[in-house]
Amino acid sequence: MKKIAWITDTAAQLEDAFIQKHHVHVLPLGVVFSDGSYRESIDLTQEEFYDKLRLSKVSPKTSQPAIGEMLSLYEKLQLEGYDFAIALHLSSGLSGTFESAQAASEMTDFNVYPIDSKIGSFPMVKMIEIGNDLFAKGKDVEEVVASINEITSKSKLSFIPSSLNQLHKSGRVSGTQNFLSNLLDIKVVISFESGKPVMKEKIRSNKRAKNYVTSLLRADMNNGNVPEVAVINCNNAPDAEIWKNELLQEFPTIKVQVVPLSICVGVHAGEGTTGLSWVTY
């Protein structure tokens, strides 16, 4: 068998055991506060990030891995005897990481196949798992890349910010929208469409917003196979666990897990965000 390297970024939020099992090399996304730049999962934990975010008067910025960092990794993998690498990255609608990977892959004679996940979080994990299963079945790299690109259109992620405060601080919504949302308890549902987060619904109360997102999952379950669901969250595991238990009561046959979102999502969505993500087969 060919020696395969997987490359991704911290948007996938991979667990250490998964990284070791699948030989994944993770490039850290960054967040820039007024006191400096921090690499996710290296310089800053989730807890430390949200502590700093609460105290920050100015919204931090996000940053992507440098092309030089990518090139160094590609050269290292080539020296280690890998035949090629698949570089699966956060949606190009959110970050320039995929474009940088494309540019870096053209600067090296090591075979790198960049893929735009068109999403983030849980579906990226499934794409790596499915890719490895296909390699184990004898598929070649072009077939695997084509299959993963198909999965990007079947991947779903919708989330509900706890408030619009952070979206306002990061310039995504106006002060008037933020004020009215807090005053009237209006929740916004944001879903990924064609690789970009789109404001789908404005709904009174968090319960109704959750019911709306669950209805999207229910519709996909009626139209296809959804064996797993992730309850995604920005430093809001308690509410995510509640939603998980609600889902298990309604859908006892599916696997449900609670998954943290990248702090780069937290920069915009804000602490307290919850949502659902899944892949339809």
Describe the structure.
This protein is of the alpha/beta class. The chain has 2 domains: about 5-30 and about 65-150, Rossmann fold; about 155-280, Hypothetical Protein Tm841, Chain: A,domain 3 (2-Layer Sandwich), CATH 3.30.1180. The chain contains 11 helices and 13 strands. It has helices at about 15-20, 45-55, 65-80, 95-105, 120-135, 140-150, 165-170, 175-185, 205-225, 235-250, 265-270; strands at about 5-10, 25, 30-35, 35-40, 60-65, 85-90, 110-115, 155-160, 185-195, 195-205, 230-235, 255-260, 275-280. The strands form 3 sheets. It has a 6-stranded mixed sheet with strand order 10-9-8-13-11-12, with helices on both faces. The protein has a 4-stranded parallel sheet with strand order 2-1-6-7, sandwiched between helices. The chain has a 3-stranded antiparallel sheet with strand order 4-3-5, with helices on one face. Helix 3 packs across helix 4 (about 95-105) and helix 5 (about 120-135) runs antiparallel to helix 6. The longest helix is centred in the C-terminal third of the chain and has 18 residues, at about 205-225. The radius of gyration is 19 Å and the shape is globular. The two termini are about 25 Å apart. The relative contact order is 0.15. Mean pLDDT is about 90; it is low at about 180-185.
